[in-house]
Write a structure and sequence with these properties.
Layout: H1 4-31, E1 42-46, E2 50-52, E3 56-64, E4 78-86, E5 94-96, E6 99-101, E7 108-113, E8 119-131, E9 134-147, E10 150-158, E11 167-173, E12 176-183, E13 191-198, E14 206-214, E15 221-223, E16 229-236, E17 252-262, H2 264-268
Parallel strand pairs: 2-9, 10-17
Antiparallel strand pairs: 1-3, 3-7, 4-6, 4-8, 5-7, 8-9, 10-13, 11-12, 11-14, 14-16, 15-17
Length: 275
């Protein structure tokens, strides 16, 4: 039988060895870097906040983050989205497509078609990020107001002996460009009915001016009087005292019949041969 002192010493050495082993294991575990948490899924939708009745609006959806994005920012999984639209009257309202995949830095496009009902619509989007068995998502919304637009109309008539076009017509409001109309080929003595709808939450009380200008990318198309633009002013009355009950009412600004002559006729005419 061992003396008591030796037995105590042996027990102490075993305990010390176990403690040292535990410290070594703890040190090794501490040296293993913890896995970085996956970035949060984020996304957004952009596009017009106001859309004219019986028209369409184009919207762009972005999304990134979650387990589909690797530590160095590369895509290792799948990013996708789905969307829906809500409102008081969804007859004639559609979102197409309502789902698709996503590529980081390259937004996905969808088109909202609305009816002739003025109302407020809400587009709801959910972005999904998946990799193997991991998945995460994020939700966000976008508000769209369907309003009666301001409409610019004009009849363009070709009075030259040759076809005119195609060309563009730029529309300005109070000196600021608000859109463009691409005019197709107009036959000799033919006409083109130009129409442009501008959707807005309302214009301030007072006089405003729409201006239409020939794009003239080639500089060969002019109005018959040599001008390249026409302007038309209109007056906007103030909203009703109870603004909450006031509905945005657009106006129609008609420029009448504008005669166009293509100077390209002269540019293409060959000089007569000398005798």
């Amino acid at each position: 039988m061992e003396p008591p002192v030796r037995r105590s010493l042996a027990v102490a050495l075993v305990a010390l060895a176990l403690l040292a082993g535990g410290l070594a294991a703890g040190t090794a575990a501490a040296r293993v870097p913890a896995a970085a948490p996956a970035p949060t899924v984020v996304g957004n939708i952009s596009g017009p906040a106001y859309v004219g009745t019986s028209s369409t609006g184009t919207y762009y959806i972005n999304g990134t983050g979650g387990p589909a994005i690797g530590a160095n920012g590369t895509v290792v999984g799948n990013l996708s989205w789905k969307a829906s639209v809500a409102g008081d009257n969804l007859t004639g309202v559609a979102l197409s497509p309502n789902s698709s995949t996503l590529a980081v830095g390259h937004p996905s496009r969808t088109t909202l078609t609305v009816s002739n009902v003025t109302q407020t619509l809400t587009i709801s989007v959910e972005v999904f990020s998946t990799y193997q068995t991991e998945n995460a998502s994020a939700n966000f919304t976008y508000t769209v107001h369907v309003v009666t637009p301001y409409v610019v109309r004009a009849t363009l008539r070709d009075i030259s002996p040759t076809p005119v076009g195609p060309f563009s017509v730029t529309v300005d409001l109070d000196g600021r460009s608000v859109g463009k109309v691409n005019v197709s080929l107009i036959a000799p003595n033919g006409s083109y009915n130009l129409s442009f709808a501008y959707a807005t939450g309302g214009l301030s009380t007072g006089e405003h001016t729409f201006t239409i200008s020939l794009g003239n990318e080639s500089g060969l198309v002019r109005f018959s009087n040599g001008a390249v633009q026409y302007s038309q002013s209109f007056y906007v009355v103030g909203p009703a005292p109870d603004y909450a009950l006031w509905i945005v009412i657009g106006v129609v600004v008609f420029f009448g019949v504008l005669f166009i002559f293509a100077t390209r006729v002269a540019a293409r005419r060959r000089p007569s041969a000398r005798k």
